Amino acid sequence: xxxxxxxxxxxxxxxxxxxxxxxxxxxxxxxxxxxxxxxxxxxxxxxxxxxxxxxxxxxxxxxxxxxxxxxxxxxxxxxxxxxxxxxxxxxxxxxxxxxxxxxxxxxxxxxxxxxxxxxxxxxxxxxxxxxxxxxxxxxxxxxxxxxxxxxxxxxxxxxxxxxxxxxxxxxxxxxxxxxxxxxxxxxxxxxxxxxxxxxxxxxxxxxxxxxxxxxxxxxxxxxxxxxxxxxxxxxxxxxxxxxxxxxxxxxxxxxxxxxxxxxxxxxxxxxxxxxxxxxxxxxxxxxxxxxxxxxxxxxxxxxxxxxxxxxxxxxxxxxxxxxxxxxxxxxxxxxxxxxxxxxxxxxxxxxxxxxxxxxxxxxxxxxxxxxxxxxxxxxxxxxxxxxxxxxxxxxxxxxxxxxxxxxxxxxxxxxxxxxxxxxxxxxxxxxxxxxxxxxxxxxxxxxxxxxxxxxxxxxxxxxxxxxxxxxxxxx
Length: 475
Description:
The chain contains 14 helices and 20 strands.
């Protein structure tokens, strides 16, 4: 009844007695029209992630963004995350510092010299995997020591993977006509995500100035019989989901778009050989950071709930993230609540890197309880014998060629490929089961001789549950 009264009382108040004694309506004063916001129309535009309650209506989102000088690019109502642009310098303040964040704006604001130098050094570490080209002709079989290390050639004879399984390569794009991956690329399932909204235009998801994603894709599903090159799971499909922009940056809105696309398309696995820029760490207690952290966390959790196993690189800084007190990329305090994204989020399989001799690569991050498995990422200090290739794994690179790169970026797709083999054998199992199987079928690696390594052979801070094993996965 109270709800009925609230509707009735204003109507009664709108009536008065006329001189004749009859009830007659009286015109109500109209509310003043809300003044249009005075928005900046000339300054540079930046893209933000904005946090809402999940399932907030699009109408409400549009209304708030317009009132606060923002323009919606995309809205993921399932998780309550909007992507918006604004030219207003105070847009984040208008929305709330814990609800909005722009990586692009942070990069554009002039940092202190020391912070800029630190960021450049950290990016150099992440790009530890610079390409070294191999001969344009000749059989490459002998140079794939990384595939032999995880028994991929034997596994391929048993089960090369199912074309019904798709691995989303969240990275810098691919070369769809490269002879090593053209059989596997699913153009219809590929998208560009750098705007924060999924873009079907091939120009948005093909590679431009970085062959990082191309190298990753070849490791997962490559197959070039003419050159003797084969990836871990050559029978599966790969979808290019481009989240790296032409400046080499991966902003939160691109990652959110990538994980949401993977969820909606039903990819079985994604590979994430990156950390989200411009910070290395994101802290849920820090303004700005909190919004980015929450946006990516929600997108990862949603994809996991929808059946996607997300695999990620541990990082190339050579440290234990939980032992850090500052962010190498910026003057930013770090505590144990802070994480490198996406690898630090629940449900994500984090992969460390080993070199040719099977021991942790010097650059690979590590940490107690932080590594699920390890895989070959290469190490220039662990060189194979002559004729067995370089210290870094071989895969597909620009212009239909092949080359080597080192990094946890290269280790992660080996694990993603094995996960794809498991998904091919055990169809429609949830990601929790794939993660369990990936770890259960790994070969334990001992800490022996490594001073900073903690834990027993079956689960330690360098190698997690051990080296992924493709043959055990298919058997």
